Amino acid sequence: METTPVRLGRNNLSVADLRLIARLDIKGPNLIKGIQLEGVRKIGDPNEFAVRYYEQGADEILYMDAVASLYERNLLFDIVGRTAENVFVPITVGGGIRTVEDARDMLRAGADKVAINSAATLLPQLISEVAERFGSQCMVLQIDAKDRGSGAWEVYRDGGREHTGLDVIEWAVRGQELGAGEILLTSIDKEGTRRGFDIDLTRSVSNAVSIPVIASGGMGRPEHLAAVVESGHADAVAMAFVLHYAKMTLNDIRADALARGLPVRQQT
Amino acid sequence: MNAPVSIVDYEAGNMLSICRAFRHFGIEPALAADPDSVAQAERLVLPGVGAFGACMAGLRSAKLDQSVVAFIATGRPFLGICVGMQMLFDESHEFGVHAGLGVMPGKVLPIPSVAEDGMPLKRPVIGWHGLEHTSQNWSNTLLESQPTDTEVYFVHSFSAHPERDEDVLAVYDKHGTKITAVVRHGEIYGFQFHPEKSGAAGLKIIRAFLDL
Fold first, then answer.
1. Distances in whole angstroms, Cα of residue A12 to Cα of each of A8, A159, B132, B149
2. Which of A16, A170, A246, B22 could in theory staple to B27 by disulfide, Cβ–Cβ 3.0 to 4.6 A?
């Protein structure tokens, strides 16, 4: 496997490009974990976990709402609000954001960015509306991708249940044109498996756009991080399963990344 | 006004996040939504997220642009964050050319698509970078007790190019390209990064502003 030399800036300061993002999937008041978007297990209080990951040095927190009913929406505002009081790194919230008003409410509740998937595939101009109103930096295009073989992936919506017929690369490029500031790219095939990210998927998307790409789905061992960055060209990595069951702490992951010369933040 | 710090409250600010950071230190900031509140502030923070033009328009429509300039002229501590820092300058070239507050000479220009060493740059630049020294000493400034290469959180596609070298207090490095991170002139400070989103390091810097 090819390795990239440590990217040092002048003064020998490391280039801390690579963000380590803690991903927390929420159902109602609970943090949950699912395997390949089917079947869930309750793990605990989301805010407690978010604070723990913040203290362990998470560069950002990502909340994904798995159900997004109206009742549960209020619970989510409460969770986000409490997290924003205690956690002083960026918070992204996704799941069930369907309108500009939903985005506004989530930002007011304490989110810094919103991640939008299904609604954007149905109404692409939503991306522009959110970007124009709140800025591109707030508008994360979430893409759930399923491998179709022959170097092509299809965009799925509604928690990986419904296919859209959209090609992932084309959709990513269009999303950037419409004003998305970032792409959250999840491999449906790899999520929850802890067998590594979809490297080809990540690289294809990262090379096709000039906005940052967050790779999500598959983190299990430290080598996976190196691979998705060096071969996959990921700008950031979101991790869920590997963290929630304390397979590795964020401190372990960061220390390992630094030892491999990956450009992660050193101080936490 | 009894609050030691006021935050300009207008449409394009992420004022709530900044409030939380001050609350962490037991300080409840005042919200300055009108010219009188701005004028009476002991210390003033100007937030700003989104497009420069939209932020300037928001400030003007709330009739706060001139109040902010007048506050700065009093010499009391002032801190602009992100677009709040960019607005200190003469103009920005984001989506056309927009006039800023003109308090510090210089322009706001796009971050290049290719860095000095040939590496393509993703924009917005999103993530943590270490603050580097410039020719300016950090002693007797807000950065005085911060360690070199303190890592803080940036998210931006445009950066400030101050005309006066001495106004640039810190930069960060992106593959050989130096990007303005902190500007300072007297008691006027501007951060391109978000101290309220930079974890413990950012909170320390917020604390230092309260001590000015």
1. 5, 43, 11, 10
2. B22
Q: Mutate which of B153, B172, B175, B177 to disrupt the A interface (most A C-beta within 10 Å)? A: B153
3-state DSSP assignment of residue A34: strand
Shortest distance between the Cα of A41 and any Cα of chain B, in A, equals: 30
Q: Beta-carbon neighbour count of residue A108 at 10 Å?
A: 12
Q: Of the residues A65, A144, A198, A235, which is catalytic? A: A144
Q: Which of A191, A242, A223 is nearest to A58 (CA)?
A: A242
What is the Cβ-side half-sphere exposure of residue A82, based on CA atoms within 13 angstroms?
Answer: 13
Instruction: Give CA–CA dist B181/A224, Å, rounded.
Output: 32
Which residue of chain B is at minimal alpha-carbon distance from A180?
A: B124
Residue in B with minimal Cα distance to A18: B127
At how many degrees (to 10) do helices B15-23 and B199-210 cross?
80
> Across the interface, which of A54, A84, A182 has its CB nearest the CB of B126?
A182
pLDDT reported for residue B169: 97
Tell me if B120 sits within 8 A of A210, measured CB to CB: yes
Q: What is the ipTM metric for this complex?
A: 0.94
Q: Distance between CA atoms of B68 and B78, rounded to whole angstroms?
A: 9
Q: Are A179 and A172 in contact (CB under 8 A)?
A: no
Distances (CA, A) of A75 to A65, A67, A91, A225: 10, 11, 16, 33
Nearest to A19 among B127, B173, B194 (CB): B127
A41: β partners: A33
Has residue A2 got a pLDDT over 50? no
Q: What distance in Å separates the CA atoms of residue A231 and residue A61, rounded to the nearest whole number?
A: 24
Is the pLDDT assigned to residue B128 strictly greater than 50? Answer: yes
Contacts of A89 in chain B (CB under 8 A): 153, 197-199
Question: What tokens were used for B180?
Answer: 């303005």
Would you call A236 and B126 a contact, using CB atoms and an 8 Å cutoff?
A: yes
pTM tops 0.90, yes or no: yes
A82: left (phi over 0), alpha (psi -120 to 50) or beta: alpha
